[in-house]
Amino acid sequence: MSSSKVLVARMGQMQVTDSGDTLKAIMGSCVGVGILWRKKGIYALSHCLLGDSPENSTVPSAKYVSDAVPMMIEALGAETRRDRFSLEAVVVGGGNMLQDTGTAEAEEIGPSNLAAAKTHLAKHDVAIKTLQDAQGNASQLFIDGATGEYEIILIPKLVV
Fold it and tell me: For the domain that residue 13 is a member of, what is the CATH number?
């Protein structure tokens, strides 16, 4: 990564850069959604905890993929459908950090987050360039704001 400053998207947060900073997120069951607008040199990254916001939600939050995708598109300034067609998405995560709890809900959080990312990006006409299922592992996503290059690192789950 070529940039000097790292902006970390913590759980439920979004970061945007047009100044060459590196964007970073570390996920377990969460999903990292990055949107790259290489033509403009603007990049966004959200660290989403869940796929869809509650129906009664009145304030959008990067905590949910359903809110984060339009928030990132707006933050990037991609106002038209033509703009959105020039965006690329990178999605990583969907690990299963709670698999030892024995509950079916815990085992489904990661995969449902990935499915929500696919659904909401398609709904907003953003093509997915890379989709990395962490397959039960934690993951990191880095986006270099100087070059638009990105790196995905899978972190194996520790067996105790």
Answer: 3.30.1330.200
Q: Cα 117 to the chain's mean position, in Å?
A: 8
- 104-123 and 65-76 helices, crossing angle to 10°: 30
* DSSP β-ladder status, 14-17 and 6-8: unpaired
Asked if the structure places residue 1 within a domain, the reply is no
What does the chain come to in residues?
160
| pTM, 2 dp | 0.90
Give a yes or no: residue 160 inside a domain: no
In a domain, 113, yes or no: yes
Q: What is the pLDDT of residue 3?
A: 46
* Distance in angstroms (rounded) separating the CA atoms of residues 152 and 141: 5
Between CA 76 and CA 92 the distance in angstroms is: 20
Residue 27 one-letter amino acid: M
- If one counts the domains in the chain, the total is 1
Q: What is the pLDDT of residue 70?
A: 97
